[in-house]
Amino acid sequence: MIYNVKKEKKKKRKKKKKGIKLNERKEKNNNKREMCIFAVEYVVNSILTRIIFSYLIELNETEELTKMGIIFTYG
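The structure assignment produced for this chain is given below.
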């Protein structure tokens, strides 16, 4: 006679999730975006100020520079 012997099933272990949680990932991405926006704004502002200064210097309008409250020496 053959007896049916039930085998005990092994419990599966849950794998621990590695890496960063979703919220932390979102925060990092947002920080990167903010830094990129800040860098672009900085570059654009610096370019604009250079253009304005070069334009004002070409016109020799020192009154405009003093109105803006900028002391600018051009050698």
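Interim note for the steering committee: DSSP finds two helices and no strands in the chain. The two ends are 110 Å apart (CA to CA).
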